[in-house]
Automatic annotation (TrEMBL):
CC annotations in GO: membrane
TM annotation in the entry: 12-30
Pathway recorded for this protein: Secondary metabolite biosynthesis
Pfam families reported for this sequence: p450
Cofactor(s) this protein requires: heme
InterPro entries in alphabetical order: Cyt_P450, Cyt_P450_CS, Cyt_P450_E_grp-I, Cyt_P450_sf, Cytochrome_P450_fung
Record has rRNA-binding as a keyword: no
Superkingdom, taxonomy of origin: Eukaryota
Name of the protein: CyP450 monooxygenase
Keyword Cell membrane: no
Amino acid sequence: MVSNNQPSASTSAGIALVIWFAISYALSVLQWRARKRGLRFPPGPTSLPFVGNIAHMRKPEPWKAHRTLCDTYGDTVYLPVLGQSIIILGGPRSISDLLDKRSAVTSDRQQSSIIPLAGFDANFTLMPYGQRWRRHRRAFWQHFLPASSLRYVPLQERSARLFLRKLLDDPSRLCEHIRYTFMATIVKVIYGLDLAETDPDAAQIEKMLEGLQALTPGKYLVEFLPFLQHLPGWLPGTGFQKELGAWRSATVGTKEGLFQRAMKEIDKGVQTQSVAAELVEGRGVDIQDEDDPIAKEIPKSVGNVAVEGGADTTFSSLQTFFLALSLNPNVLRKAQAQLHAVVGPRRLPVHADRENLPYITAIVKECLRWHPVLPFGLPHLTTQDMEYRGYFIPARTLLLANAWACLHDPEVYPEPERFLPDRFVLENGEWNTKVPDPAQFAFGFGRRICPGRHFAEASMFVYVAMVLHVFDISPPLDAEGKPIQVQPKMTNGVVSYPEDCRCTITPRSTWAKELILSEGV
């Protein structure tokens, strides 16, 4: 009997596979070392095998946790997570150097599996950097330039007057009134439609915005392990599928529903002044040929981006305003004194008063600084390897700009935890040009800066000025009528909100109440 000492076919295949993996790994290591050219990664905390620094990405209020990291390691901190390179930019210098000065190679977006799962793949703020993104953004920007935004002022003022009336009728529904009036304004500007509170589209928009609020970087493992989206929904760890699916349904439904409603009115000639009507006609759209697919999607997608971004971010800022004023009666009194001197008791302030109301503008700026809507902004993605300060930053690295940390730098904004609009205004009433404008951090960076920022600040000014002119704002009261001390904490999420903005809202006097009732809406 002759023994067979030859390895089996399966054993040979296994050995070959191991050799292939070993060679592939060795080549990848050699290639990686060649790309690094002897450079080190930026400093950062020790990472665990395989998962890296995932724990640092899943902490509550990550902007505070990451500022602590930057205090230890500097303003450029390296955090690898499940094979993804992430760098925290913790100060104005690193943010400007990388996101502004090198924007040609740091303006991409990571195409996370979360984006299409939640229905936000048609949102140009999340699109990859390229021709499609440029054309969508250009179409949007042309309708929201500083000069272009002035034509929306009458709608913003009308919306603010409606808000006053709703607050007078039922101040306990503050958040619902903010959400609805801003939402209705955006829908009117973009689609030319009047949106009632009971409109089914209003409920669908609410659901869509709920999805935006929940999208915190690192919250869902599927962001780092895309294969999870293909697993059966009944398996443990796949509960995200149902949640993201509901948001996708609402997002797609909002985009299609509002656009089709607007098209019916446009076709009938009922309205021609909306952004959607102008985009459909080709105004602001770079149409390259009759079958240009990007030109066809722009009117629908651009409109939905405005609803997603405009209603949500300004909603957060105005909540911050009410929270701040309820905690700072001295700011309230000073603002009301300026309004009385400039506007008087016989009319409401309007956008045209802005130049003569610097303290109201200062309050708006301080809201942006004190609790920024996007404390971490939206992550940028590098498109090529680069060297920065002697460190290696590989292509496809996520850059997270900690806007909150910049806006809470005590060397730039003394006593950053306090709400102090006076920091922006000198004693003689002139604007303090030595204090950086929070808008340079609050609205994004480089080529990804928010194109609707002028519209947003104008809306905030009108709302803040009108509210302060006719209402007093104070802390909420408990069942015994005693003031409740609300803690100024913020929610996690890409868009962050005050956790609690309860307050007591009352007309300043009889004349204020009569003024609200006399203004037509």
